């Protein structure tokens, strides 16, 4: 899957940096930091729930500003609701209208759609994204728990059948066994379904999934440049360095 100059699913997992500034000023600082670290990441994620307090116009002015400034990179638009560990407080209808606007009017390449939002909303957003040529990343997060392996596999399968291009699960592990379950699920899903998958275990115990997930088939790894967007996120520069150890011929 090639977006701009980045081939997702080939070689090392691609490093995604999450922009989480709450204000235009904080976003400017993140863009400046990214400018000086251009070789440390491959993809930009706009975590638009970080500026949840803005009105619709200001929200998209900022989204468009980031997309323009970072236009060399594939752009993921994400609005993470607080039910899934984000700052987003909008209703389901408002969520749909935000994502729909981003798909139709912003220069984004990938849209992150929370899979357990109302089925009808998810299906409509998927259809719109497909029509616009925006890649569909279906996601589920749980900042408290890790489901059983069979449940993770069922979620990957449902996501695949509903049309996801990239399927992403991110959970909080209770222990190392949960981390192993996430990696097993990624491994099996990558082999079973003809699409890209991501599996993240958050927190300290899960850091290994961010560094070594690619060995098991994970195509993206999320890091930060300024502020962590989730527990256990590693600085993008460090991530890139660690990923080098998995390169062949070294
Ligand atoms: O889904 C993810 C992964 C993430 O939760 C993480 O654990 O790095 C960070 C989020 O910004 C992103 O949308």
Automatic annotation (TrEMBL):
Residues given in the record as 3-dehydroquinate binding sites: 18, 45-47, 80, 210, 233
Keyword Plastid tagged: no
InterPro entries: Aldolase_TIM, DHquinase_I, Type-I_3-dehydroquinase
Pathway involvement of the protein, from the record: Metabolic intermediate biosynthesis; chorismate biosynthesis; chorismate from D-erythrose 4-phosphate and phosphoenolpyruvate: step 3/7
Classification via SUPFAM superfamilies: Aldolase (SSF51569)
Annotated EC: 4.2.1.10
Gene3D superfamilies: Aldolase class I
GO biological process: 3,4-dihydroxybenzoate biosynthetic process; amino acid biosynthetic process; aromatic amino acid family biosynthetic process; chorismate biosynthetic process
Name of the protein in its database record: 3-dehydroquinate dehydratase
Gene: aroD
């Amino acid at each position: 899957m090639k977006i701009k100059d980045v081939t997702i699913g080939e070689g090392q997992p691609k490093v995604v940096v999450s922009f989480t500034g709450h204000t235009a000023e904080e976003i400017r600082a993140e863009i400046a930091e990214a400018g000086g670290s251009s070789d440390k990441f491959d993809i930009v994620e706009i975590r638009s729930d970080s500026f949840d307090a803005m009105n619709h116009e200001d929200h998209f002015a900022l989204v468009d500003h980031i997309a323009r400034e970072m236009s060399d990179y594939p752009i993921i638009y994400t609005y993470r609701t607080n039910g899934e560990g984000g700052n987003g407080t909008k209703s389901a209808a408002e969520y749909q209208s935000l994502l729909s606007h981003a798909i139709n009017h912003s220069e984004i390449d990938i849209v992150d759609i929370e899979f357990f939002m109302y089925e009808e909303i998810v299906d409509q957003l998927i259809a719109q994204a497909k029509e616009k040529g925006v890649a569909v990343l279906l996601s589920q997060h749980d900042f408290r728990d890790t489901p059983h392996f069979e449940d993770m596999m069922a979620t990957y399968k449902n996501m695949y059948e509903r049309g996801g291009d990239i399927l992403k699960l991110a959970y909080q592990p209770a222990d190392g066994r949960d981390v192993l379950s996430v990696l097993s699920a990624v491994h099996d899903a990558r082999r079973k379904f003809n699409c890209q998958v991501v599996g993240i275990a958050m927190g300290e115990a899960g850091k290994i999934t961010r560094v070594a997930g690619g060995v098991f088939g994970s195509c993206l790894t999320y890091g930060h440049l300024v502020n962590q967007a989730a527990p256990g996120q590693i600085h993008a520069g460090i991530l890139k360095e660690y990923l080098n150890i998995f390169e062949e011929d070294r």
